[in-house]
UniProtKB/TrEMBL annotation:
Involved in the oxidation of myo-inositol (MI) to 2-keto-myo-inositol (2KMI or 2-inosose). This is Inositol 2-dehydrogenase. The lineage of its organism: Bacteria, Pseudomonadati, Pseudomonadota, Alphaproteobacteria, Rhodobacterales. Keywords: NAD, Oxidoreductase. It catalyses: myo-inositol + NAD(+) = scyllo-inosose + NADH + H(+). Residues 144-320 form the Gfo/Idh/MocA-like oxidoreductase C-terminal domain.
Amino acid sequence: MTLKIGVIGTGMIGRDHTRRIQQVLAGAEVVALSDYTPEAARAVQADLAPGATVYERGEDLIAAADVDAVLVCSTGSTHEAYVLAAIAAGKPCFCEKPLATTAEGARRIVDAEVAGGKRLVQVGFMRRYDAGYVALKQAVETRTGAPIMVHAAHRNPTVPEQYVTPMAIHDTFVHEIDVFRWLLGDDYVSARVTFPRTCAASHAKLRDPQIVTLTTARGVVITTEIYVNCQYGYDIQCEVVGEEGIARLPEPMAIQMRLNASLQTAILTDWKDRFVASYDTELQDFIKAASAGTATGPTSWDGYMAAVTCDACVAAQESEGTAIAITNPERPALYA
Ligand SMILES: NC(=O)c1ccc[n+]([C@@H]2O[C@H](COP(=O)([O-])OP(=O)(O)OC[C@H]3O[C@@H](n4cnc5c(N)ncnc54)[C@H](O)[C@@H]3O)[C@@H](O)[C@H]2O)c1
Ligand SMILES: O[C@H]1[C@H](O)[C@@H](O)[C@H](O)[C@@H](O)[C@H]1O
């Protein structure tokens, strides 16, 4: 059976996911497209999915009889309503991060999915599918002894002008928030943010870089440098210090060169290249589960816990240097 997918939001990532479904992955085809700007959907239709129907409204795409499953790739603030509509229609739904822009919104999705009694939502936290993070998790679980500290960095070369201080949490650090919960099998109890001096490449509404310190329920302290104007490349670093040893996230594969009296390897500059294989694997996983009428991978609960943690981190930005407590509500049995 070929899973018939509808894609809502045909901007950068909606286009890229349509390409991978149409040209890379097995078992699915894009039969419907929708975007707030219909020309954007029609452009993706022309380039990648000539057989797809273009809908002016995402709600109509979700309701369409020939759409088996939905990808929500629109602007973050629109995710909640579309995911709730997909759950109401009983259709599996892959939602790009964030699941919702508020913790309350993400909780409404959790409650709707729990009320329906089965998993229908996968959140696009693709790092869990990255071969390097999978190997790191295995090393932490079997080799390093119990983790004590994590040192991490999330560096982007530049960001657009409209990127402001809280986005370093909601848009960027949200990946670390999810992947460290998964890596350590632990939840957060507090967040603190400190700001070094702002770099010259930034602007008045963006304090960059910043350092976020998360503490987990088991007492692991995670420090992450978020530096989104680092200039030199797209660089994701992570080192876990355990009782018996240290495990480090591998660098992306790169040819090592001996040239002009120096030893060189290139550093990637675009997040799409850094995680290209993980996007493929996460969506193939979605196709497999959705073909069986359900969902797998990162859950609505993970999306909700990420939103709760984001809120605490933004509060921590606003009260620079102060630890903000994070409460962990009881996890519903559906996400055990
Ligand atoms: N997992 C990742 O690494 C990753 C990477 C990039 C983006 N994202 C997420 O994907 C989402 C989209 O990001 P993007 O970079 O493609 O942004 P984008 O701005 O390129 O595309 C967003 C699209 O959504 C459309 N849109 C806006 N409101 C809409 C509505 N109500 N209904 C339908 N369409 C609507 C816009 O017209 C636009 O075409 C964001 O939530 C972003 O955080 C995730
Ligand atoms: O939307 C992007 C994307 O999620 C990248 O993975 C992240 O590195 C960027 O900071 C963010 O702006």
